[in-house]
Amino acid sequence: MVLIGRDAARLERIAADLKTRGAGSDIRAVTVDFLDPEAIRAVADDVAQTAVDIVFIAHGMLPEQDACQNDLSACREALEVNGVSPVLFAEAFARTMEKNGRGTIALTGSVAGDRGRKSNYVYGSAKGMIERYAQGLQHRFAGTGINVVLVKPGPTDTPMTARLKDTGTRLAPVASVARRIARAIDKGVPVVYAPCRWSVIMWVVRHLPGVIFRKLDI
Amino acid sequence: MRPVSSWGRLDANLHQVVSLRDQADIRDSVLEKEPGIAYGMGRSYGDVCLNPGGLLWSTAGLDHFIAFDEATGVLTCEAGVLLEDIQENFIRRGWTLPVTPGTRQITIGGAIANDVHGKNHHVAGSFGDHVRRIRLFRTDGETIDCAPSEHSGWFSATVGGMGLTGLIVEAELQLKRIDGPWLDTETLAYGNLDEFFALSDASETDWEHTVSWVDGLSGEWGRGIFMRANPVGGERPGPRKVTLSVPFTPPVSLAHPGILRCFNAVYYKFKKYRAGRAVAHNVPFLYPLDNIREWNRAYGPEGFFQYQSVIPRETGKDAVHAMLDEIVRAREGSFLAVLKTFGKRDAVGMMSFPRPGVTLAMDFPNRGARTRALFERLDAIVMQAGGRLYPAKDARMPKSLFEAGYPRLEEFLKYRDSGIASGLSRRLMES
Known about the structure:
The complex is a heterodimer. Chain A is of the alpha/beta class. Chain A is built from eight helices and six strands, in the order βαβαβααβαβαβαα. In chain B, helix 9 runs antiparallel to helix 10.
């Protein structure tokens, strides 16, 4: 198992945790600049020296919508971290995986990517990009042994959403979301909402007529 | 700020909650800020884990394992790791926590801070007996590694120290070899307290786990069901996993005296009828309520108290007798009433609850002044019998009873961290 992140100490802590839980003794931690295409390519090629079976791309940040509207640098950062960077990772691994002809690439989109909403559309548009990208990748690998899984979590209890807690937002527990993601990767499901109820909620949100949708304060 | 309750749901005061996720968070959030208290799973019943209007350090994110030695069974982990995590991971690898309380949904930090005990106290002591080292982060920035043989004063103050000696960030635990998740159990009915004590004494040498449910409501006080168990090896098909939950808080407590009397009578008869030997999985036997998520809601919007005392053996029988008498007369009491004898050993912690004697734990729906008046009568019995109450379960004991029950309080206070305070510490220790 290879953990790719930005902070070596945090990665080592996770590696030790996984080892202790019995996830195998060969766990490597690699740090890289997540916005540098050359570095991402180099890491992917290095990791893929031994065949990669599953790539799970799960990084992101939750920007303040106001900050994105008032500060274009913040807006660009939100788009790059949540949209561009995951795509670069997926693309880098797609090339190596194509050679082997098998494996799974799982990308983390979001329920926020399903329809632009005034409260969170910059983050949402980056996540929407992940969805369109995953769709293309699924098309590209159709009929091969490579699965592309798009995960769309609802608000989940992670460090990213810590500040939502005081606003009373209902956050799903990490363990149940993770279990659902792991099962989707095992089965190679193209799109999975986690928890499950979001598939219903977002179906409604996507299909609301614009006249009604624009009146909603969401 | 957001409302936070403990397990008893007696109130939901606003707290400023800071999530601790790693070392950097700990330094930034804990260092010389206003007083706070560590909050893990909120499974203690009263205000030992709360700090109304103030700061709470949520330790749920400190949930990483650090190392495990397969040869010796020594596990190092962060303070927010759950007992459930350890048991689920290690029992299948042949190791178990030597002591667990009636729920696995608590953190290691909380288990140490309250020096929790289990059904095997007479053979294994309490949780603190199996802790090899604790890493404490003090709010002045100092880190103290304490162990039974190193900084032993700090160790003994921290085990059972209610989180008041510093933030517990890491611990090293001694796990115990085990053959698997199964228990050879025996269920017996007893008709009165004499029979209970006879059964307890007779079971101490040959049975690892002993516990009993006592019917504290029917006129025939003192009857109950005695359960004992030993680990047993062998492969068996896993138990059916049924998780129920109380989906919402009913407008009134379901623990209505009439319902309860019926429930207790039926439960007693049923268990008596089903008495005998059986092999059971450890989870339903040791943690029966973990399968009903949020069962604390059943007591309604006013919440509930748990009253848990330990009474020295010499005065134990009469005191338990007297307490059950008061409870029956008050027509209070509830489903959950546990009676167990503790082994003849002193706990590691200065403020640990377990001591040789007999412990009675009962839930009481909060009916305001009426419930508190009953507690005052129970307090008098505990006080006179030389017993004490369990701070992890407490939301209201008088200072005098606390001081009488915990003779090492003065010594303990020297180890307190001035940057840490809880509802309980303000109530019982003046700061």
